[in-house]
Amino acid sequence: MRIQKLTKETKQNLLEDLLKRSPNSYGEYEASVQAILDKVKEEKDRAVFAFTKQFDQADIDATNILVSEEEIEEAYGKVDASLLEVVRRALQNIKDYHAKQKINSWFDSRPDGTILGQKVTPLQRVGVYVPGGKAAYPSSVLMNVMPAKVAGVDEIIMTTPPGKDGKVNPTTLVAAKEAGVDKVYKAGGAQAIAALAYGTESIPKVDKIVGPGNIYVALAKKAVYGHVSIDSIAGPSEILVLADETANPRFVAADLLSQAEHDELASAILVTTSEKLAQEVSLEVDNFLKELSRAEIIEKSLDNYGYILVAETMEDAIDAANEIASEHLEIQTAAPFEVMTKIRNAGAIFIGEYASEPLGDYFAGPNHILPTNGTAKFFSPLSVDDFIKKSSIISYSKEALFKVHNDIETFAKAERLTAHANSVHVRFENEEA
Amino acid sequence: MRIQKLTKETKQNLLEDLLKRSPNSYGEYEASVQAILDKVKEEKDRAVFAFTKQFDQADIDATNILVSEEEIEEAYGKVDASLLEVVRRALQNIKDYHAKQKINSWFDSRPDGTILGQKVTPLQRVGVYVPGGKAAYPSSVLMNVMPAKVAGVDEIIMTTPPGKDGKVNPTTLVAAKEAGVDKVYKAGGAQAIAALAYGTESIPKVDKIVGPGNIYVALAKKAVYGHVSIDSIAGPSEILVLADETANPRFVAADLLSQAEHDELASAILVTTSEKLAQEVSLEVDNFLKELSRAEIIEKSLDNYGYILVAETMEDAIDAANEIASEHLEIQTAAPFEVMTKIRNAGAIFIGEYASEPLGDYFAGPNHILPTNGTAKFFSPLSVDDFIKKSSIISYSKEALFKVHNDIETFAKAERLTAHANSVHVRFENEEA
């Protein structure tokens, strides 16, 4: 891996490099996505079935679009029993962690009869999109579904494209069932997003759509945003390791590689105060590369977006980490909790040498759907909060309103909104006539 | 106002009518907005000054773009003292309410050395956009700024277009100062949004942009979304009153009118179980209309989007309210808290006959920036949560990771991510070699 001194310049170059991974204009796809959305909005099921035939070469109709109980049973037969046990243990951890995120409605009453509050209500129906293809990512199913489940969403439905045989990936089905998905529909691509956003005879309209997908899915989600809610569009994966001379170079190298293997746009960065560690990690990366199955992808992503930066001080290193605002941040230093207190921007923070990033991807409990590409400066991990919404509560007694009615009228008149002033005034017109 | 029976059909028509108010394609403006954004991104201050000259006919440069202390003092001289007192009292209520929304970081430790948590960090710098023009809306300044202030945002800056004389509306300035805005810059339109998103020599880049604006501002915010965060795009104002035969028709009528006066797209809806109340409210609306200064706007908005619906039962009325998901919902019934418990979807809920909607607009404390056009099904009022973000915290001891390392490796291998498996495996390679 390239080793550079951390300077204002190298940091700036790195930041500009990373931003290049932002999706550019996808104008060429936008029109075809919009055409699919319009067609499904108008023709509903009929369009969904036709697009499924066209894009997935599968014969799906109203009789088989909903995955049946038999199909789910069949899927259980195909999934390795030991994997199922692992999925169940991971699920429990994810559930326990997200349960701690739940917030309650609250009400505050005052002696004059004023009641102010905030009512928390789960979303009614949520749609989870799961990509098709050969590789299944059951961990992604769990991470998308569990926050909705814990939030108390009434109905969680899933759509995923069928194979040519009209079947859905068994691991995906089992993960969905284990996580408590209510219904799974065989539909993929922009047509599935349209069905979730507008509703069809078979697929009900949802309030929010979450889950990853290809460029068609991403553009379709963006297009229906506002009509329904969506999660944020995920960018390429990232890891930044903050380490000092006490870090184990083999651990650091293995962790950098764990993110670099995702795809060629993934980014793996080490910022360290130790020149010696920098050299050792680079060597270990080369050693591991010989053994890893996805070495080709890893080499490309390291060439493009892999960096080892040597900082003068830990303060400088921390500043760089805060500016880069990485999706995953590992702290492998002598006093990692000290460093953590100074981190402002990161999706997930892994503290100490035994908190390796894949622990968070699969098992510990916190969500693995995290803000990428610097957006950890203002976005948060997917959480229970994404599946609830709040309503303000306001109740005033006559006495309480009387005390402030002149204030409100003054304010409304200053904004020239006389009907606003009148609505308060009329309540006391007899008192003051 | 038109009076209709609440049926499946009338409800459907109403819902379709309301949705017509959604912004359609603004393709014609998109290109010019993008051109402004690109120019400011490249030429920074120079472009901002040129656009300010072009659109606002004001001479602004690096020496006067930042509102000075003298200008703020001057503004205080121009604002009515009694209005200032009202602003201060409203501000305190808004501060008190939002303080209750603050959430803390939390950490959960287990005996095996596992620590999981969620770290809450305020955004670093936020930009508030305030429209120019003759009418100032100081209440909007308070409602946009206070949640950021309470959240603990380090720096809150504001941009607002100058008049031809290079001055900013004094009421806006005073409201900004009172709310604790750190700096006010004289810039408006898409060029101000671009400056906030990319930064210029004079205006620093922010993490999030909030505040209302015209179509150029809205499109510019949408275009920079992802690079920075934004609030949601506000639609036309709405009120829905749920009332039974115990409601005071004069109060109900006045409250409907308070929202109808906003603009011609505003919607005012009464859903009642009482045919008698329906008739009386309609009469009172006509009576008030004779006296109100904005009668022309009101008549248009009532013609377009004003409805009185008579429901068979309160359950039907509540169902309709939940489907419409109004920005403001008033409950004027014999047992309003009973009804409130059944409300799922509303931006703000006003309970009882003395909780008139303008109380919430100006004074009670909850935010008046609320989800519109049915989006209360999945969006929330602007709150402290919009100005913080969360990072997950994961720390495992060696012992804790050892217990689960096989599980994680199994899961990673099932997803064919071997470098993920390796990152856990390497931590115990010597133990198990």
TrEMBL record, chains A, B:
Entry's cofactor comment: Binds 1 zinc ion per subunit.
Q: Which residues bind substrate?
A: S237, Q259, H262, H328, D361, E415, H420
Keywords of the record, alphabetical order, are: Amino-acid biosynthesis, Histidine biosynthesis, Metal-binding, NAD, Oxidoreductase, Zinc
| Catalytic reaction list | L-histidinol + 2 NAD(+) + H2O = L-histidine + 2 NADH + 3 H(+)
Q: Which residues form the active site?
A: E327 (proton acceptor), H328 (proton acceptor)
Q: Which domain of life is it from?
A: Bacteria
Record: residues binding Zn(2+): Q259, H262, D361, H420
Query: Which InterPro entries has this protein been placed in?
Result: Ald_DH/histidinol_DH, Histidinol_DH_CS, Histidinol_DH_monofunct, Hstdl_DH
Which EC number applies? 1.1.1.23
Q: Which Gene3D superfamilies match?
A: 1.20.5.1300, Nitrogenase molybdenum iron protein domain
Q: What class of enzyme is it?
A: oxidoreductase
The record's listing under SUPFAM superfamilies reads: ALDH-like (SSF53720)
Q: Specify the pathway.
A: Amino-acid biosynthesis; L-histidine biosynthesis; L-histidine from 5-phospho-alpha-D-ribose 1-diphosphate: step 9/9
Which cofactor names does the annotation list? Answer: Zn(2+)
Question: A Gene Ontology molecular-function term?
Answer: histidinol dehydrogenase activity
Which sites bind NAD(+)?
Y129, Q191, N214
Q: What does this protein do?
A: Catalyzes the sequential NAD-dependent oxidations of L-histidinol to L-histidinaldehyde and then to L-histidine.
Q: Which NCBIfam families match?
A: hisD (TIGR00069)
The UniProt family comment states:
Belongs to the histidinol dehydrogenase family.
Protein name, per record: Histidinol dehydrogenase
